[in-house]
Amino acid sequence: MILTIIALAALVILTPFLTRLMGRATGWPLAAAYLGVAALFTPTAAEVMAGTTPEVSLPWAPSLGVDMALRADGIGVIFTYIALIIGAIVFVYSTAYLPQGPGTLSFYWLMVVFTFSMVALVLSNDLIVLFICWELTSLASFFLIARSGSPGQAPSLRTLFITFIGGLTLLVAVGVTIAVTGTTNLHEALVSDVWANQPAVTTLVAVLVAIAAMTKSAQFPFHSWLPDAMAAATPVSAYLHAAAVVKAGIFLMMRFSPAFHATPAWNVILISAGLITAFIGGWFALNQHDVKKLMAYSTVSQLGLITAVIGVGTEAAIAAAALHVIAHALFKSGLFMMVGVVDHLAGTRELTRIPRLIGPAPVAFTVMVLGCASMAGIPPLLGFVSKESLFTALFEVPASGWILFASAVAASVLTFAYCAKTVWGAFIDGKPVTKSELGHSSPVMLAAAGLPIVASLPLSFVLFVFDTPLTEVVAAAIPGTPEEVHVKFWHGFTPELYASALIIVIGIILIINRSKVFAFFHRARLGFDGADVINGIVLGLIRLGRGLSIFARPMNSGPYLAMSLGGLALIAFVSVPAIYPSLPPLQDNLWRAPDIVLLVLITIAVLVVCTSHSRLTTVVALSAVGILATVQILVLGAPDVTLTQLLVEAMTIIVIMLVLQKLPRSFWRYSKRLQSTRAVFGILVGAAVTLLTLALNGRRERSSVGMYYIENAPEISGGHNIVNTILVEFRALDTLGELTVLGMAGIAIVAVMSTVKDRYIDPPAENIPEPPRRAWVTVRPKGTSAYRGVHEAWPNVIPLQLTIKVLGPLLVITSALIFWRGHNEPGGGFIAALIGSAVIGLLYMSTAKDRAIGPPRAPLYLIGIGISIAILTGLLGLVLAGSFLEPMQVYIFGQKYTSSLLFDVGVYLAVLGLILLSFNLLGVSDSAATPAGDDVLTDGIIRRDVERTRERADELLYGELKGPMESIRGERPRRGDRIVGRGSDRKVRASTTHILHGNAPLDRGEAPTTAEGDR
């Protein structure tokens, strides 16, 4: 069983590489892999069929009592096989359905992630693990819908909103369950005596779990997300919305049945919601013109019947629900895939526009008839057997059985009607058409769609194969020793048989009068749907938020800062005098001469920051504050932190200067009265913070944790630089989290910039009211070196370019030495990366024009590789040392090496990537005062040869482009938009004569280029 999970996890890792290599044909090896995983799971399934329940448990978070626990029973076996076998068929179908070219990577990878999550969900035996897998299925479903582009964005968000409600209720239910049962073990919790002894708690948890399951299985009033999700590709609908994600809700109901099958609230909610959903799903299906949305509402209806029967809670009901789950997975996945076949043939899914396909596509017609007949419950298909078992379970409910039975029969009449509408609308009632007029449909698609549907026919003649699996499902869902389940085709002349005959007769009458019937249902539709309701709720919340915004104006933060800082000052002035007599005395040597000098200098710099009207002056003064604080750290005897702080300050100021060129030169001038008020307030707050600092700091010895590190860190880690060993060994998980945040910050910058059009990020230069100023000094005539030195930038950077040829290698060597010595002396990956970033800064400043440094996609690759290396180091510690990020040591040629060195490599690369991204993206400038490019003649038109912010953001994702993209939703560039060739460049060398002859060299990143479309 654990091998099943490991195999699926391996597929999650391998799928991106397979997709890169094989494109849409990746479905073939993935289908084979799924069948292989199913075969791997078969020995476990055989044990379950023999009456045992195999369990595996690995420690995960022992301190929290959470284990990676798996347990296989009848319920888990059925849902595992559905996920794997239907998934394999859908992958085969996808090899012909998906378009050629890019875009298949996200599809296959997300599908595999979903399968992994689904199988882990149905086999989990830990409440925490179950909740995590539940949320993973929701996220995978969200991304699979959202990847459909613009049509899928709003539906994906609405789907996430509804399933988020279910996730919250399940989280509360899991928390309460753990609290009252005292265990995270799922099986132990479900069979606990708590449910019998505490009815109030039982009712609460039962309602919460029911709501969670109903959101995922699209039950009223949460049903709207499933039809809304039809924006996803047809293979996604065939797998997730017919056989997998909606079945997760059904699974949750069955899984918690041992605790709640006899709870009245559970019974009432599931039966009521299920039958209402079955009826309205059938009615709404008949309202539809889009055959795919019709199938979606039919899924809602069928899931309603299953939900209602699970709510009955008897052994017969659980067996009937499980049998219909199997039948529904077969016919509905096939029918969704048949919708794709029809769409490819007819070029549309609108029933009013589909031509008569019965003649040109007889095989497709036969498959569609079999699938719809199974869903309608026509003998001798498996759907007939499962539908009659549902009727039996409802009919046997005491007192209300007849009402429930009649409701299910009424819903089944609607089922027959929408099945007829599908067959007649798609194959019979359309306009005649020849085969040559139809689109292309692959035999692979038809074979894959037909396989699960056709399987319903032979299975109905070997019903005994379901006896043992259904018996084990009942044993898992209802505690005790259940009777053996025997599935039969013929039960004699029973009310269920009469009801089936009545449904067929009424269905035939409806078919004969179908034009009137379908016209009636087209008229008898609501003026809104579930998506409209959700949109209305969102708009109402937006209006409410705008109404409340009078109390919170985000563009004016002054009142909120005044309240929070004023409150802090009030607390300080009131509380410190009260507690001062009881405070311990201050430590010695807190007041030294260097401290006083630095305090005075920092105060002066802060006053300059507060009073300056020039942004440039303010930045210089702010940098002085940082440098003086760095000196303070050095005086305190922390060279490692000093070096880090110094480099961070340098890089921060450079980045601020890059952004500063996009801002006005001076701040807005406020009235003197307002400035005076703010000054007084600032002084009071500063005094309060000073008072708190004096009262709460410097009054204790070193902490026990600090002393532990000082006394034991060198011996445990083998390194004498305690700061570094804390960062990369003792608290490496914190560092990994901070590293991930840094990486996500860089990615977020790119993501935001790539969704805003170029004209909104960088307004045209002529719109910026800062015209270039004429030089007031007299220079030599045009063509001389002096003239070029004043009017052109490139002669002024050549000395710096020559300097870099010497200084650059020295900085690289210094960076390597600082990195290498970090375990024992001041240094490490972070500091070394900042020194390496200085090389990037020098390269950036040595360009006469605004050019990106390095390959366009290098920053994201560096960030991704760096974080991946850090995570890989943690996984190596988990596998080889038993704990994530556990440091390991090895001797090579007598020299000791630690795995934290590899972790530091990840830190180095990620920080380097973030700094490179910041320079390349934030430093873009094109204004009238600071032109960033040259005017060039292109196709007879003068254009500015400059990379602007949007173009630079796009190139971080897609490589060299001819210009900024206009997309805002992640669309990829067209082939002709890319630049793939480079010509020769003229580099600056020691023997350069560029200045002498007036020939500007090519800057870094600038070279003659060739567009793909021009080659």
Automatic annotation (TrEMBL):
Subcellular localization, as worded in the UniProt entry: Cell membrane; Membrane
UniProt KW keywords: Cell membrane, Membrane, Transmembrane, Transmembrane helix, Transport
Protein name: DUF4040 family protein
Residues annotated as domain NADH:quinone oxidoreductase/Mrp antiporter transmembrane: 124-415
PANTHER family from the UniProt entry: NA(+)/H(+) ANTIPORTER SUBUNIT, NA(+)_H(+) ANTIPORTER SUBUNIT A
Membrane topology per record: Multi-pass membrane protein
Region feature Disordered, mapped onto this chain: 988-1015
Domain Na+/H+ antiporter MnhB subunit-related protein, first and last residues per copy: 800-916
Domain MrpA C-terminal/MbhD intervals: 600-665
Transmembrane region(s): 74-93, 105-122, 128-147, 159-180, 230-253, 265-287, 363-382, 402-424, 444-466, 497-513, 560-579, 591-609, 616-635, 641-660, 680-698, 739-756, 802-822, 828-848, 860-885, 905-924
Signal peptide span: none
InterPro entries: CPA3_Na-H_Antiporter_A, MnhB, MrpA_C/MbhD, MrpA_C/MbhE, ND/Mrp_TM
Organism: Brevibacterium ammoniilyticum
Keyword Ribosomal protein applies: no
Residue ranges annotated for the MrpA C-terminal/MbhE domain, each copy included: 680-770
